[in-house]
Amino acid sequence: MASKHIENAVANKDFLAMRGCLVANILVDKNLTTIFKEDFEYCLSHGISESEIYEQHNGKDINGDYNKEHYDRLRAELTSNFSKERLDMLKKIAIKLYPPKIDSNNNQGGNNNNASNNYQRCGNSARYAKTDKDGNKLIYAIVAGVAVLIGIVLFAG
Questions:
Q1: 53 class by beta-carbon count within 10 Å (0-12 exposed, 13-18 middle, 19+ buried)
Q2: How many CB atoms lie within 10 A of CB 7?
């Protein structure tokens, strides 16, 4: 089930918003196998081509060690250059750092079925949003933060 934000971005063909949502998804879906994948596939199945989602690679070197620092750098760079090459490298690193886990219910994501881990099921999908101890969804704060970063990059450059 796609997020409302991605549905709106697709409906308006707002590629900047689509990319922003996808980058925000990576903050929650580190291995890019659940929320990110669902929203990306939603874009493709609703008339948006990969060439519209991706930007031309800016030529910046994407190679490096398969570690958290490289993963974090690539993820941050996606906000200013959402290239297929950068995303593919991020996925390769994510497989090593954050392999998908299968829980006892055969859902990907591992510990997401335990409320004590600060996750809350979103609607009828298998998607979970991280919550604080009071149950407030942190995803909105993350999305807002990414939107601010995108704005800064666009207007500062």
A1: middle
A2: 16
Q: What is the pLDDT of residues 4-33, one digit of tens each?
A: 999 999 999 999 999 999 999 999 999 999
The C-alpha atoms of residue 14 and residue 84 are separated, in whole angstroms, by 18
0.70 surpassed by pTM: no
CA atoms within 13 A on the CB side of 64: 15
DSSP 15-81: HHHHHHHHHHHHHH-TTSSSHHHHHHHHHHHTT--HHHHSBPP--------SSHHHHHHHHHHTTT-
Contact 38, 127 (CB under 8 A): yes
**pLDDT tens for residues 98-121?**
987 765 555 544 444 433 344 443
Phi, psi of 15 (to 5 degrees): -65, -35
Name the phi and psi angles at 132, rounded to 5: -85, -175
C-alpha to C-alpha distance for 37 and 58, rounded to whole angstroms: 24
DSSP letter, residue 123: T
| Lookup: tokens for 156 | 């500062």
